[in-house]
Amino acid sequence: MNSEEDLVRLRHAVRAATLQAEFSLVDQTRVVTAASELARNAFVHAGGGTVAIEVLRHTDRRGLRLTVTDQGPGISDLDAAFTDGYTTGPGLGHGLGGARRLMPDFHVRTAERGGTTVVATRWVSP
Question: Kind of pairing, strands 105-111 and 115-123?
Fold first, then answer.
């Protein structure tokens, strides 16, 4: 993901994956929004990155996992980064915290000058 066009393609790919996983329309929107926010963060703050999209099927559960990885400067204050309104760039400061609220299973690994990886999973509601 290195351009605005890549972000558009990502949104389409995530939407297709949510359809494959049989998410409701509301949950499709949640997952696509979270993917867009996470990818935009990697693009803006790290100059780009990669996104892996996995449709998950475990016996009686279906879900989707997003893994967003960049090689940027890392997040120096992770607690602050989750706070609405906190930003180190041109945005409104809702991206990381908003994505975490949209994706119930959410993990961040970050290292100063070592990049950041976000793994976010949402399961289809019964």
Answer: antiparallel
Cα distance between residue 108 and residue 6, in whole Å: 22
Instruction: State which fold the 4-123 domain adopts.
Output: Heat Shock Protein 90 (3.30.565)
Domain boundaries, the chain: 4-123
- Long-range contact pairs involving 87-93 (C-beta distance under 8 Å, separation at least 24): 88/45, 89/44, 89/45, 90/44, 91/40, 91/44
Per-residue pLDDT of the chain (126 residues; tens, 9 = 90+): 778 899 999 999 999 999 999 999 999 999 999 999 999 989 988 899 999 999 999 888 999 999 999 999 988 877 777 776 656 555 544 578 889 999 999 999 998 778 999 999 999 987
